[in-house]
Amino acid sequence: MYAVVRTGGKQYKVSPGQKFTVEKLKGEKGSVLSLEDILLIAPDTEKDPIVGRPVVEGAKIECEVLSQARSKKAIVFKFRRRKRYMRKKGHRQQLTMLKVKDVSYNGQVWKEEEASK
User: Fold this and answer.
1) Which residue, 26, 106, 107, 115, is most buried by CB atoms nearer than 10 A?
2) Of 10, 2, 26, which is closest to residue 98 (Cα–Cα)?
3) What pLDDT score does 52 carry?
4) Are 29 and 64 in contact (CB under 8 A)?
5) Do 56 and 40 form a contact (C-beta atoms < 8 A)?
């Protein structure tokens, strides 16, 4: 079972029990977030996936916030040859690490424990 969720302008393929990192979301460590921009749910390999247009109505993913952190520094260096022009900047993106607890749609719930079997 997997789902495709959209957050921070990006799309992530997630399963119950999986950990993944997204751009910063509000929430303290240990709190539970609900993501509702679900683009696709694939319940099983033999069943057809549920595709949203653009999102699947009534679907949501419950996630636990594992940590709030910052990424490794990305260096931005601008340079013009023979003009004595150089600019160096660094950037560290704020990140949130999440763990998917369950995926629900129309009364069906896929939990973390079922995915590990």
Assistant:
1) 115
2) 26
3) 92
4) no
5) yes
Whole-number Å distance between alpha carbons of 17 and 20: 10
| pTM of the complete model | 0.85
| Residue spans per domain, the chain | 2-107
Helix (H, G, I), strand (E, B) or coil at 83: coil
CA distances from residue 57 to 11, 13, 73 in whole angstroms, order as listed: 17, 18, 38
8 A C-beta contact, residue 55 and residue 90: no
CA dist 47 and 29 (Å) reads 36
Q: Give the alpha-carbon dihedral of 109, 41, 60, 15, to 10 degrees.
A: 70
Q: What is the pLDDT of residues 40-99, one digit of tens each?
A: 999 877 788 999 999 999 999 999 999 999 999 999 999 999 999 999 999 999 999 999
> Residue 17: which residues within 8 A CB-CB, separation 6 or more?
99, 100, 112, 113, 115, 116
Signed CA dihedral, 26, 18, 109, 56: sign only: positive
